[in-house]
Each structure stands twice: as C-alpha cells, then as structure tokens.
Amino acid sequence: MPILSFNHVAKTLPYGFWLRRKSVLHDVSLSVEAGEVYGFLGPNGAGKTTSMKCLLGLLRPDAGSIEIFGRPGSDPGARHKLGYLPEQPYFYPHLTGAELVEYFGRLFGIAAPERRRRCGELLEMVGMSSKADLPIRQYSKGMMQRIGLAQALINDPELVILDEPMSGLDPIGRREVKEIILGLKKKGATVFFSSHILSDAEALCDRVGLLFSGRIIREGTVDELLEQRVRYWEAACEDLSRADLPGFEPSAQQGDRLYFRFEDDRQLDRWVDVVRAAGGRVVLVTPQRATLEEYFLATVKQDKADRGAAAAAESTARSAGASVDTSGAQEDALHSRPPRAAAGGAR
Ligand SMILES: Nc1ncnc2c1ncn2[C@@H]1O[C@H](COP(=O)(O)OP(=O)(O)O)[C@@H](O)[C@H]1O
Ligand SMILES: [Mg+2]
To answer: Phi and psi of 346, rounded to 5°?
Structure first.
C-alpha cells in the first residue's frame, strides 16, 4: 500500500481582479511507496507547491482525493507522523534557531530531555549548531532553509515532505541536504520532495514524477525514464591502427587507444566484430544517456507536439464529420457528373 497517493487531483485557484479561476492542477495521480525517496520535479509554476498544499490540507482539491498512510489527507490523525518544510518558511524572527526547533518540539508534545537531545542532534545535522543562538531575523536564505529542515524533522517523521529543500543553498549546502535526505531514507523514512532543478534529483530519487503545467507527464525510476534515451555509445579499442578498421572513423585518439561514437547500437555491434577479427581489444563501451533535464525538455516538446497533432486530427475529423453527409454526393459528383459541374460544386 502506498504511503502517499494523489488520485486524479484537480485544483483551480482564483486570479486577477475579478477572481476568475485558473486551472492549476489537472488530474494529478501519483503514489509514493514506504521507504522511497520520491522527486516531484518540474519547472517553476508547474503546480508543485499547490500539490503539496493540497497534500497537507492547506488547500482543498476541487476534484480527486489524496491519501496519507491510507487515510484521507484531511484527517489530522495522518499528520503527526509527517514532517513538512514549506517552500518559503515563515518563522518568528525574534526566536533563535534553537528556540524555534525547541518550540516545534513542544508543539509535538515531546518531553523535555528527549526534546533537548533531538534539538541538539538536528541542529548538528543541518550544520547550524554554531548559529543556533542567533535570532532568525539575522539568518540568510540558506540558514533559514537549514533551520526549516531541522524543524521539519523534530517529530522523527515517517513521511517527510520538503518543498524545494535545496533552493537558496550553495553547492555545499545542496550536497549536505542530499546527504540528509539519504540519511532519512537509511533510517526507513519516506521522503517526498519537490525541485525545479532536475539534476538535484538524479542521484537521489528512487522514483520521480515529472509535473508540467499541472499534469504528471511521466512517472518512474530515473533509470526507467532515461534508459530509453541513450544518446550515443562511446567505445574504445587498443592494439589497432586506424587502417585496421576501414569504414569506422575514430572520434579521438589517445596514445594507442582509439575512441569511437555510435548513435546506432547495430553499428556498435559491427565495430566490436571488426575490432575482434582484427585482433584488437575492446576496452570501453559506455552508453551516454540523456540527463534528466534533457529528458524532461524532450518529453515536454514531444507531448506538446502530440497534443498539437491530436488537436489537429480532431479538428480535421470534425470538419470531415461535418461533410460526411455530403462526401458521398461529392464523390458521385466527381465520378458521374461532367468535370466542370463537379468543380463548380466543390467551390
Ligand atoms: N495563491 C495563489 N493564487 C493564484 N494563483 C496561484 C497561487 N499560488 C500559485 N498560483 C499559480 O499556480 C500555478 C502553480 O504554482 P505553484 O504551485 O507555486 O508552482 P511550483 O511550486 O511548481 O512553482 C502558477 O501558475 C501560480 O502562478
Ligand atoms: Mg513551488
């Protein structure tokens, strides 16, 4: 049973002076299994934060349902095992970082000694021990992000929901947050996080869902999504000269080693045969996969083209449908009437 699932969730939000409503989520379905790190990925404005707010019961979906731990997302009972880092956390600016984490510990009813121990551990984990006694108003965006993460983890949650946890952090901070996420997974927690930076997710996620314009356009493991898209193969051989491999043009040479690129794996097979037959050694064959970013861009482009083609086909079908009654007559006209009359009828 999934720990978290969206089932055909749709949401509109009001916008503009007349508060017309625009459709932000269309039929979003996804599921996150226990123990997974799930990357909810998509560009700015795709609807990630809106989805997370629906998930936390801060917004109500117009249609569809959300379940957490097998209960409706709106059920408060589902919440105490959950930790949440909002995209733009607002914390009382006069509190120090340590006081803030302590405060959330109290909200969860954690007893004093345990609370103090956990606060210390978490501040250490997010790299904020030395800044814990500064008031939050003096924190940078990255420091807010870290203290927000400590706050989200105070109740030792089974499900951690992080909205853009890497945003505002420098490369070291991003790496540290990734390590924290992997640490949570190691402890058995489930992590559902959003990011608009796809490369952040690549080495981190068990599965990803790609959200674009409020629609999940793909869902799967990073490998599943990328394995269909080997861009080319890089191969190299040794102990041969260029003359031993007629018909194959090396892309580079380094000492005794010749490098080749193949876009077609049948061509690669042929090359391997020729290398072996000529007494050479194949020392390298590596598929060069598209990055998640390239995959995403290509998928969006493909989807747009498909949707455009589907719309065009529909409108053609519609206009063809409109002339169905007359098409027989037109055909008759073309065959049985004199050409001039047919041409006149078609005008
Ligand atoms: N409170 C709001 N009122 C009206 N429109 C909103 C509101 N919040 C977000 N939106 C719109 O909803 C869309 C999705 O936004 P959001 O969920 O924040 O995307 P993401 O988190 O993926 O960047 C955007 O077009 C945004 O302008
Ligand atoms: Mg967002």
So the answer is: -75, -20
Pocket flag, ligand 1, residue 24 (CB < 6 Å):
yes
Beta bridge pairs of residue 129: none
Strand pairing class (159-163; 4-15): unpaired
Instruction: Please indicate whether residue 49, judged by its CB atom, sits closer than 6 Å to ligand 1.
Output: yes
Number of domains in the chain: 3
Domain boundary among 225, 247, 275: 225
Asked if residue 42 has its Cβ within 6 Å of ligand 1, the reply is yes
Say which residue the tokens 């250490």 belong to: 124
Token pair for residue 34?
A: 């226990």
Ligand nearest to the CA of 20: 1
What domain range is 263 assigned to?
A: 230-289
Distance of CA 243 to the CA centre of its chain: 47
Among 196, 225, 254, the domain-final residue is 225
pTM equals 0.76
pLDDT in tens, 92-109: 889 999 999 999 999 888
For residues 299 and 273, state if they share a domain.
no
Which protein residue's CA is at the shortest distance from atom 27 of ligand 1?
A: 45
